[in-house]
């Protein structure tokens, strides 16, 4: 019996730290290209952005759909992990909430590059919206709860409503003079308790 079998790991080996970093760099590069050129951008553009050959991308992501799903999940995970980190390092819970919402806006703007594909008829993209809510709504709720507990914002705030409100404000992005980040900042400022 192998060491993996004894420890219940089966035949799947965890990725080495450098392999995880390389994959994250590919996903960050793909996200950047998707924002500027759309999800149909040539793979060679993503490879150039990442500083690798196209074969490297195809080795990690055999199809464009695999790459799109991986980019989306990578960005959701980064945003989910940022919430507790910001809460721990932020000067106040309200500041942590504002900083997280800034990242949420960045995510939504990036997601607009994925919007056409995510709304396609391809069933492989169907679970992504549920995944988004499952991962991010609890993080937003944690940040809101901490800000309420600190006395900085009024109680009774709903994480899903706040996320939808920010999403609505981001939907107008791309127009000249429209600053979604500023508008979401006003939304967050409006949560503050005024005594």
Number of strands: 0
Mean pLDDT: 84
- Helix and strand run: HHHHHHHHHH
Biggest sheet, in brief? none
User: Proportion of β residues?
Assistant: under 5%
Q: Tally the helices: what do you get? A: 10
Radius of gyration: 19 Å
Distance between the termini: 67 Å
The assigned structural class equals mainly alpha
Spatial shape: globular
* Percent range of helical residues: 55-70%
Architecture overview:
The protein is an all-alpha fold and 195 residues long. It contains 10 helices and no strands. It has helices spanning 3-6, 17-37, 43-50, 54-60, 64-89, 93-112, 115-118, 127-149, 159-171, 180-189. The radius of gyration is 19 Å and the shape is globular.
List keywords for this structure.
single chain, 195 residues, mainly alpha, 10 helices, 70% helix, globular, disordered N terminus
Characterize this entry briefly:
With 195 residues, this protein is mostly helical. It has helices spanning 3-6, 17-37, 43-50, 54-60, 64-89, 93-112, 115-118, 127-149, 159-171, 180-189.
Q: What topology does this entry show?
A:
Elements: H1 3-6, H2 17-37, H3 43-50, H4 54-60, H5 64-89, H6 93-112, H7 115-118, H8 127-149, H9 159-171, H10 180-189
Helix pairs in contact: 2-3, 2-5, 2-6, 5-6, 5-8, 6-8, 6-9, 6-10, 8-9, 9-10
